[in-house]
Amino acid sequence: MAADSNSLRSAQSYWNAVAETYAKKFSGTTVGHARRQAVWHDLERAFKPGQHILELNCGNGIDAVFLARKGIRVLACDIAPRMIELARALAAESQSATPPDFRILATENLATLRNEGPFDGAFSNFSGLNLVDNLSEVAIDLEALLKPRARLLLCMMGRFVPWAIVWLLARGRPRQALMSLINEHTHYGGNSDLRVQRPTVATITRQMAPAFRLVGWKGIGVTVPPSYTERWARHFPRLIDHLAAIDHRIGHLPLFRNMGDCVLLEFERRETHAHVS
Questions:
Q1: Are residues 140 and 211 in contact, defined by beta-carbon separation less than 8 angstroms?
Q2: pLDDT per residue over 132-178, tens digit each?
Q3: I need a surface site. Which of 69, 138, 218, 269 has the fewest CB within 10 A?
Q4: So what CATH class is 5-159+197-269?
Q5: pTM for this one?
Protein backbone atom coordinates (compact mmCIF):
# COMPACT_ATOMS: atom_id res chain seq x y z
CA MET A 1 0.00 0.00 0.00
CA ALA A 2 1.38 3.39 -0.93
CA ALA A 3 1.65 5.74 2.02
CA ASP A 4 2.51 9.41 2.36
CA SER A 5 5.76 9.58 4.36
CA ASN A 6 4.91 12.95 5.95
CA SER A 7 1.57 11.62 7.21
CA LEU A 8 3.22 8.52 8.64
CA ARG A 9 5.89 10.57 10.41
CA SER A 10 3.22 12.83 11.89
CA ALA A 11 1.20 9.84 13.10
CA GLN A 12 4.28 8.16 14.55
CA SER A 13 5.25 11.35 16.40
CA TYR A 14 1.75 11.78 17.82
CA TRP A 15 1.40 8.20 19.10
CA ASN A 16 4.90 8.25 20.55
CA ALA A 17 3.93 11.37 22.51
CA VAL A 18 0.67 9.95 23.92
CA ALA A 19 2.00 6.44 24.57
CA GLU A 20 2.83 7.16 28.22
CA THR A 21 -0.69 8.32 29.05
CA TYR A 22 -2.70 5.99 26.80
CA ALA A 23 -3.35 3.40 29.50
CA LYS A 24 -4.28 6.03 32.09
CA LYS A 25 -6.67 7.84 29.77
CA PHE A 26 -8.34 4.79 28.21
CA SER A 27 -7.17 1.22 28.89
CA GLY A 28 -6.95 1.74 32.64
CA THR A 29 -10.23 3.59 33.02
CA THR A 30 -13.55 2.21 34.23
CA VAL A 31 -15.12 2.91 30.85
CA GLY A 32 -12.17 1.62 28.84
CA HIS A 33 -12.10 -1.63 30.79
CA ALA A 34 -15.81 -2.25 30.18
CA ARG A 35 -15.46 -1.63 26.47
CA ARG A 36 -12.35 -3.74 26.09
CA GLN A 37 -14.02 -6.64 27.89
CA ALA A 38 -16.80 -6.49 25.31
CA VAL A 39 -14.30 -6.77 22.45
CA TRP A 40 -12.32 -9.50 24.22
CA HIS A 41 -15.47 -11.61 24.37
CA ASP A 42 -15.55 -11.69 20.56
CA LEU A 43 -11.78 -12.06 20.10
CA GLU A 44 -11.81 -15.12 22.35
CA ARG A 45 -14.74 -16.58 20.40
CA ALA A 46 -13.19 -15.93 16.98
CA PHE A 47 -9.60 -17.03 17.66
CA LYS A 48 -8.46 -20.32 19.19
CA PRO A 49 -5.34 -21.58 21.00
CA GLY A 50 -2.56 -22.52 18.62
CA GLN A 51 -3.65 -20.10 15.90
CA HIS A 52 -1.32 -17.40 14.53
CA ILE A 53 -3.08 -14.02 14.53
CA LEU A 54 -2.08 -10.62 13.15
CA GLU A 55 -2.93 -7.46 15.11
CA LEU A 56 -2.94 -4.00 13.54
CA ASN A 57 -2.50 -0.84 15.60
CA CYS A 58 -1.68 -2.77 18.77
CA GLY A 59 -0.93 0.25 20.95
CA ASN A 60 0.51 -0.75 24.32
CA GLY A 61 -0.09 -4.44 23.64
CA ILE A 62 -2.92 -5.18 26.06
CA ASP A 63 -5.03 -7.11 23.52
CA ALA A 64 -2.07 -9.12 22.22
CA VAL A 65 -1.09 -10.10 25.77
CA PHE A 66 -4.68 -11.13 26.52
CA LEU A 67 -4.71 -13.48 23.52
CA ALA A 68 -1.22 -14.77 24.30
CA ARG A 69 -2.46 -15.86 27.73
CA LYS A 70 -5.05 -17.94 25.88
CA GLY A 71 -2.33 -19.79 23.98
CA ILE A 72 -2.75 -17.77 20.77
CA ARG A 73 0.34 -16.62 18.86
CA VAL A 74 0.13 -12.94 17.94
CA LEU A 75 2.22 -10.81 15.64
CA ALA A 76 1.25 -7.31 16.79
CA CYS A 77 2.16 -4.14 14.88
CA ASP A 78 2.06 -0.44 15.68
CA ILE A 79 3.51 2.64 14.03
CA ALA A 80 4.89 4.10 17.29
CA PRO A 81 8.21 2.78 18.68
CA ARG A 82 7.31 3.89 22.20
CA MET A 83 4.03 1.97 22.07
CA ILE A 84 5.98 -1.13 21.06
CA GLU A 85 8.43 -0.61 23.93
CA LEU A 86 5.54 -0.47 26.39
CA ALA A 87 3.90 -3.49 24.77
CA ARG A 88 7.07 -5.56 25.12
CA ALA A 89 7.37 -4.53 28.77
CA LEU A 90 3.77 -5.56 29.41
CA ALA A 91 4.36 -8.92 27.72
CA ALA A 92 7.48 -9.50 29.83
CA GLU A 93 5.46 -8.88 33.01
CA SER A 94 2.76 -11.32 31.92
CA GLN A 95 5.28 -14.16 31.45
CA SER A 96 3.06 -15.84 28.88
CA ALA A 97 4.16 -19.19 27.42
CA THR A 98 3.46 -17.74 23.97
CA PRO A 99 4.58 -14.07 24.18
CA PRO A 100 3.46 -11.83 21.31
CA ASP A 101 5.90 -10.77 18.62
CA PHE A 102 5.74 -6.96 18.54
CA ARG A 103 6.82 -5.00 15.45
CA ILE A 104 7.15 -1.32 14.63
CA LEU A 105 5.07 -1.22 11.46
CA ALA A 106 2.46 1.11 10.00
CA THR A 107 -0.74 -0.45 8.68
CA GLU A 108 0.08 1.13 5.32
CA ASN A 109 3.18 -1.11 5.14
CA LEU A 110 1.52 -4.46 5.85
CA ALA A 111 2.75 -5.86 2.54
CA THR A 112 6.22 -6.28 4.08
CA LEU A 113 4.81 -9.18 6.15
CA ARG A 114 3.86 -11.35 3.18
CA ASN A 115 6.66 -13.84 3.80
CA GLU A 116 5.42 -14.41 7.37
CA GLY A 117 1.89 -15.50 6.52
CA PRO A 118 -0.55 -16.92 6.03
CA PHE A 119 -2.20 -15.96 9.31
CA ASP A 120 -5.25 -17.68 10.82
CA GLY A 121 -6.94 -14.35 11.47
CA ALA A 122 -6.43 -10.66 12.17
CA PHE A 123 -7.94 -7.80 14.14
CA SER A 124 -7.68 -4.09 14.85
CA ASN A 125 -9.15 -2.70 18.05
CA PHE A 126 -10.48 0.74 18.97
CA SER A 127 -10.36 2.86 15.86
CA GLY A 128 -6.79 2.46 14.62
CA LEU A 129 -8.09 1.90 11.09
CA ASN A 130 -10.06 5.15 11.21
CA LEU A 131 -6.71 6.87 10.66
CA VAL A 132 -6.11 5.01 7.39
CA ASP A 133 -7.19 6.87 4.26
CA ASN A 134 -8.06 3.87 2.12
CA LEU A 135 -9.49 0.68 3.62
CA SER A 136 -9.64 -0.90 0.18
CA GLU A 137 -5.84 -1.00 0.12
CA VAL A 138 -5.80 -2.52 3.61
CA ALA A 139 -8.16 -5.22 2.33
CA ILE A 140 -5.82 -6.03 -0.56
CA ASP A 141 -2.86 -6.43 1.81
CA LEU A 142 -4.86 -8.51 4.29
CA GLU A 143 -6.16 -10.78 1.55
CA ALA A 144 -2.56 -11.75 0.78
CA LEU A 145 -1.76 -12.30 4.47
CA LEU A 146 -4.77 -14.32 5.67
CA LYS A 147 -5.85 -17.88 5.01
CA PRO A 148 -9.13 -18.51 3.20
CA ARG A 149 -12.08 -18.31 5.62
CA ALA A 150 -9.90 -16.54 8.22
CA ARG A 151 -11.74 -14.18 10.54
CA LEU A 152 -11.01 -10.44 10.56
CA LEU A 153 -12.39 -8.30 13.41
CA LEU A 154 -12.34 -4.52 13.07
CA CYS A 155 -13.42 -2.19 15.89
CA MET A 156 -13.99 1.27 14.43
CA MET A 157 -15.67 4.56 15.33
CA GLY A 158 -19.44 4.74 15.10
CA ARG A 159 -21.18 7.40 13.02
CA PHE A 160 -24.30 8.00 15.14
CA VAL A 161 -23.35 8.25 18.81
CA PRO A 162 -26.19 9.49 21.07
CA TRP A 163 -23.85 9.67 24.07
CA ALA A 164 -21.58 12.13 22.26
CA ILE A 165 -24.48 14.25 21.01
CA VAL A 166 -26.05 14.54 24.47
CA TRP A 167 -22.67 15.32 26.03
CA LEU A 168 -21.97 18.13 23.54
CA LEU A 169 -25.45 19.60 23.85
CA ALA A 170 -25.21 19.58 27.64
CA ARG A 171 -22.06 21.67 27.32
CA GLY A 172 -23.65 24.21 25.02
CA ARG A 173 -21.95 23.04 21.85
CA PRO A 174 -24.86 22.38 19.45
CA ARG A 175 -22.85 23.14 16.31
CA GLN A 176 -20.23 20.52 17.23
CA ALA A 177 -23.01 18.03 17.98
CA LEU A 178 -24.48 18.66 14.51
CA MET A 179 -21.08 18.34 12.85
CA SER A 180 -20.58 14.97 14.57
CA LEU A 181 -23.62 13.73 12.64
CA ILE A 182 -22.71 15.27 9.29
CA ASN A 183 -18.94 15.05 8.94
CA GLU A 184 -17.43 11.88 7.49
CA HIS A 185 -14.01 12.89 8.77
CA THR A 186 -12.43 14.94 11.55
CA HIS A 187 -8.99 15.46 13.09
CA TYR A 188 -7.61 13.43 15.96
CA GLY A 189 -6.58 14.96 19.27
CA GLY A 190 -6.51 18.46 17.82
CA ASN A 191 -3.72 17.43 15.44
CA SER A 192 -4.50 18.80 11.97
CA ASP A 193 -2.15 16.22 10.40
CA LEU A 194 -4.12 13.24 11.74
CA ARG A 195 -7.20 12.94 9.59
CA VAL A 196 -9.82 10.57 10.99
CA GLN A 197 -12.15 8.80 8.58
CA ARG A 198 -15.65 8.03 9.90
CA PRO A 199 -17.15 5.63 7.33
CA THR A 200 -20.51 3.97 7.79
CA VAL A 201 -20.78 0.20 8.17
CA ALA A 202 -22.05 0.02 4.58
CA THR A 203 -18.99 1.93 3.35
CA ILE A 204 -16.58 -0.23 5.36
CA THR A 205 -18.22 -3.39 3.99
CA ARG A 206 -17.95 -2.10 0.44
CA GLN A 207 -14.29 -1.14 0.88
CA MET A 208 -13.38 -4.55 2.32
CA ALA A 209 -15.04 -6.35 -0.62
CA PRO A 210 -14.63 -8.47 -2.61
CA ALA A 211 -11.94 -10.28 -0.60
CA PHE A 212 -13.90 -10.11 2.67
CA ARG A 213 -17.57 -10.63 3.43
CA LEU A 214 -19.29 -9.24 6.52
CA VAL A 215 -20.66 -12.01 8.72
CA GLY A 216 -21.87 -9.88 11.63
CA TRP A 217 -21.42 -6.69 13.60
CA LYS A 218 -22.44 -5.01 16.83
CA GLY A 219 -22.18 -1.74 18.70
CA ILE A 220 -19.55 -1.21 21.41
CA GLY A 221 -20.47 1.47 23.92
CA VAL A 222 -24.17 1.69 23.17
CA THR A 223 -25.09 2.34 26.80
CA VAL A 224 -21.57 2.42 28.31
CA PRO A 225 -20.48 6.06 28.08
CA PRO A 226 -17.43 7.34 26.16
CA SER A 227 -13.99 7.59 27.78
CA TYR A 228 -14.26 11.37 28.22
CA THR A 229 -16.95 10.75 30.87
CA GLU A 230 -14.46 8.89 33.06
CA ARG A 231 -14.32 11.54 35.79
CA TRP A 232 -18.02 10.89 36.32
CA ALA A 233 -18.05 7.16 35.55
CA ARG A 234 -15.38 6.16 38.08
CA HIS A 235 -17.70 7.22 40.90
CA PHE A 236 -20.34 4.74 39.74
CA PRO A 237 -18.53 1.45 38.95
CA ARG A 238 -21.61 -0.69 39.63
CA LEU A 239 -23.66 1.40 37.22
CA ILE A 240 -21.00 0.97 34.53
CA ASP A 241 -21.11 -2.79 35.13
CA HIS A 242 -24.89 -2.76 34.67
CA LEU A 243 -24.60 -0.68 31.51
CA ALA A 244 -21.97 -3.08 30.17
CA ALA A 245 -24.37 -5.99 30.78
CA ILE A 246 -27.07 -4.12 28.85
CA ASP A 247 -24.59 -3.51 26.02
CA HIS A 248 -23.91 -7.23 25.88
CA ARG A 249 -27.61 -8.00 25.50
CA ILE A 250 -28.57 -5.31 22.98
CA GLY A 251 -25.34 -4.42 21.16
CA HIS A 252 -26.02 -6.85 18.30
CA LEU A 253 -29.66 -5.80 17.74
CA PRO A 254 -30.31 -3.93 14.45
CA LEU A 255 -31.55 -0.69 16.00
CA PHE A 256 -29.14 -0.37 18.91
CA ARG A 257 -25.95 -1.49 17.18
CA ASN A 258 -26.03 1.71 15.12
CA MET A 259 -25.74 3.77 18.33
CA GLY A 260 -22.37 2.49 19.58
CA ASP A 261 -19.44 4.81 20.14
CA CYS A 262 -17.62 2.09 18.19
CA VAL A 263 -18.77 -0.73 15.95
CA LEU A 264 -17.16 -4.18 15.93
CA LEU A 265 -17.36 -5.79 12.49
CA GLU A 266 -16.52 -9.43 11.84
CA PHE A 267 -15.44 -10.37 8.32
CA GLU A 268 -14.51 -13.66 6.69
CA ARG A 269 -11.81 -13.86 4.06
CA ARG A 270 -13.41 -15.37 0.97
CA GLU A 271 -11.87 -18.53 -0.48
CA THR A 272 -11.90 -17.18 -4.02
CA HIS A 273 -13.29 -14.15 -5.75
CA ALA A 274 -13.13 -12.35 -9.03
CA HIS A 275 -11.23 -9.05 -8.94
CA VAL A 276 -13.16 -6.11 -10.35
CA SER A 277 -11.10 -3.89 -12.63
A1: yes
A2: 988 999 999 999 999 999 999 999 998 887 777 776 777 787 776 66
A3: 69
A4: alpha beta
A5: 0.90
